[in-house]
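Narrative summary of target 7.
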Amino acid sequence: MSIPAEDIWHDEGLNLDFHFNEQGFFVDNEGKRILDHPKGFQNNDLFGDWLHAYVERQMTKEGLLSRLIPEDNGSPIWYTPGAFNQADKLLVIICGSGRIPAGLLSVGVCAYHGLDMGSDLPWIRWAKSRNMEVVILNPNHIGYRQLKKKYNTYGSSEHCLAVFEDLIIPSSPNNVYVLAHSMGGECVCDICNNFQEWYIQHVKATALTDAVEDVIKNKTGFTHNYLKTRMIDWVGSSEEGNTKLPPSKLCAHRSAGTKDHPLTTGKAKDYIIEWFEKLGA
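Modeled conformation, tokenized:
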């Protein structure tokens, strides 16, 4: 089967064409992965832009839609058609910081380890298999600058707070599951601090991966007890995957099964899914 030209990336460093195969691995025309080549692959902004466009096309094929927050020159978020219509189950994904747009967790991980490890695509497919709706936030996009500052937070959190306040909370989802990587953990803390009563009533589980952790105030009197059982951070560790580790002041910790920060979400995926499903996903 021929590969559309837009789905082929020519790497100038190796002077080879690459594409993602059916298993989601980035391979050359002989089926060799980047890891099979000597150094030379150029993981630069041009590749990142191409990869993002590729993943956006795949999200469109999965039936996701996109809209700007705010509507004028805002940040594009991605979502399933029923995400903002009283969803019974809703998965919210928040990426870390850097050159990571909605749909990606790590550019380099996608190239070297495949889309299942470095993108949101496997999470979208899992959610669909569980009849869940999906919302993918875009905290690194500069569109947050168009928002009127309402909270004592930084830009990426402003974006996340706006999506929750304007779209997610008013749509009255019943059971929400949150996945947040790295700096996305800071956004989660801001969301929980600002919408705490709603958060502990509707968010059934929050999975963090090697995340930045901040203080969540105990505004309800039982928030900290909630966090002990409904929030887990799978952190970088040499311990076997999913091994229980000493908790932080915020939440329980488990091993992601790797010390490689960008790989933690992909490595912990099966453990997170098992936990989400145990809690009703």
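The chain is about 35% helix and 20% strand.
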